[in-house]
């Protein structure tokens, strides 16, 4: 998922930029009062040990608090909408040998990348729904 300022890197088994994602989810789900307190404290000092011992594995993602899961779910949907085609269209093109062979090598590689990205995003949708 990519925003104006950066990206979160998601893999098959876990979030690879877990600290950034965790902090972003917390901040975006804060009330105005909680955010003021967060800014005054320059972040969370108490959570650092807990954060170091946790990873955002796929299993952990499915156990996130409901507001975090909803935010992730909605973000994934928006990200998927930014693609010109859906996962099924990519799968169909990969399975259509004649159409696939008409693509340039670069287009074939791009197709594989898009297909992999969409599979990861669909997996995330299932984990947080």
Number of DSSP helices? 8
Question: What amount of the residues lies in strands?
Answer: under 5%
Termini gap:
17 Å
Tell me the overall shape: elongated
The helix/strand class is mainly alpha
Mean pLDDT: 86
Rg, please? 18 Å
Relative helix content: 55-70%
What is the strand tally?
0
- Low-pLDDT stretches: 49-53
Largest sheet: none
Query: How are helices and strands ordered from N to C?
Result: HHHHHHHH
Q: Can you walk through the features of this model?
A:
This protein is mainly alpha-helical and 129 residues long. It is 66% helix and 0% strand. It contains eight helices and no strands. The protein has helices at 18-28, 32-40, 48-52, 58-62, 66-81, 87-95, 97-102, 105-128. The two termini are 17 Å apart.
Task: Give the helices and strands, then pairings.
Blueprint: H1 18-28, H2 32-40, H3 48-52, H4 58-62, H5 66-81, H6 87-95, H7 97-102, H8 105-128
Main attributes?
129 residues; mainly alpha; 8 helices; 66% helix; elongated
């Amino acid at each position: 998922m990519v925003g104006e300022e950066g990206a979160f890197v998601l893999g098959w088994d876990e979030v690879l930029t877990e600290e950034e994602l965790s902090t972003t989810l917390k901040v975006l789900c804060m009330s105005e009062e909680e955010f003021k307190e967060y800014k005054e404290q320059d972040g969370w000092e108490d959570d650092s040990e807990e954060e170091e011992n946790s990873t955002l594995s796929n299993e952990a993602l499915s156990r996130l608090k409901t507001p975090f899961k909803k935010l992730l779910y909605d973000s994934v949907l928006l990200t998927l909408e930014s693609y010109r085609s859906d996962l099924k269209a990519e799968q169909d093109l990969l399975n259509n040998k004649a159409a696939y062979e008409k693509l340039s090598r670069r287009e074939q590689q791009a197709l594989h990348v898009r297909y992999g990205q969409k599979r990861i995003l669909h997996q995330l949708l299932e984990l947080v729904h």
